Amino acid sequence: MIIPHNIKLFFLPPATPELNPIEQVWKDIRLRGFKNEIFKSLDDVIARLAGTVQNLTADMIKSITLRDWIPR
After folding, report:
1. Does residue 13 contact residue 54 with C-beta atoms inside 8 Å?
2. Does residue 49 sit within a domain?
3. Is residue 10 domain-resident?
4. Domain total of the chain
5. Contacts of residue 11, Cβ cutoff 8 Å, sequence gap at least 6
6. Each residue of 57-70: b (16+ CB within 10 Å) or e?
């Protein structure tokens, strides 16, 4: 595999979602858009997910995923 110069791979140990930045984004999405609610259909779930994700700004994503060990 050829890794581009602007991409750096990091080893993440298994079963450590707190180290995986995308897991923190999903956690935030669940807190913002899915609070103890029953949906009538999968389409309703998809619509809520889309709306919740669209409301996340780049600054919000940065604040959720920023880690000292991730180069900026």
Report:
1. no
2. yes
3. no
4. 1
5. none
6. eeeebeebeeeeee
Q: What angle do CA 21, 44, 33 make, to 5 degrees?
A: 40
Question: In the structure encoding, which two tokens stand for residue 2, read together?
Answer: 């050829």
Domain that holds residue 27: 19-31+39-65
Quote the pTM value: 0.62
What gap in Å lies between CA 54 and CA 49, rounded to an integer? 8
Cα–Cα distance, 56 to 68 (Å, whole number): 22
For residue 23, with 0-12 CB atoms within 10 Å meaning exposed, 13-18 middle and 19 or more buried, which class applies? middle
Question: What is the per-residue pLDDT across 18-60, written as a single tens digit (0 to 9) for each?
Answer: 777 888 888 889 888 888 889 999 999 999 999 999 999 988 8
- Say how many C-beta atoms besides its own lie within 10 A of residue 20's C-beta: 14
